[in-house]
Amino acid sequence: MKKFFILIFLLTYSLNSNAHMAHYNKFNKIEMEILRDGEVIGYNYYFFKKDGDKTTVTNQIKFKVKLFGATIFEIEGYGEEKYNKDKLISFNSKTLQNDKKKYVNLEFNEQTGKFDIKGSSYNGIASTNNVIGNWWSHKILQSDSQISPVSGSIKEQIVTFVAKEKIELYGKTFEVDHFKLTSKDMSLPKDKILNFDIWFDKENSLILKVAYSRLGNWEYKVKKFE
Asked: Residue 138 is part of a domain; what is its CATH number?
């Protein structure tokens, strides 16, 4: 019986999520704070620009990890996703990670019906079933694989529904669906494994919180959206 209700939930969730970009027409900006061990260390902002059927989503991310006053890890990046209706037609990003330049240049190829990717970690083609691994889009909860927004690498994933919960963020209470997103291959090196807890607000079509552990306990939390 429990398995039956989980199946019904997943089918309902999938069917309600078909009109993907339409869910974000109301947004101009989503602001996320990045915390490590409870301390704010940076931000991840998403900006939305609409022009008819076309939507451009720009992403700005910056954070810095310090230990005993010395910077041990630092990222600053910019990305831009372009959509025509629900179809991703391009994604470009530049990221500076500990003074190392990383990038992704992705284009939808009309002739092959696939993505052409030139990235700092991957060059080749990819199925359009892949999503860009950013936290603004709930489509990441519906896909079997994602494309790294930093390097272009393709990562297979498994998404599991955990429970319906209530969480409090910045003085507000939200009813959310809790998911677990993990790598399909959990034997990968630790720095390559996907292992995230994700809290999704279905009413606003927003991923409100993401948590994971890697050299500390990390959280991405939506502080403001407009």
From this structure: 2.50.20
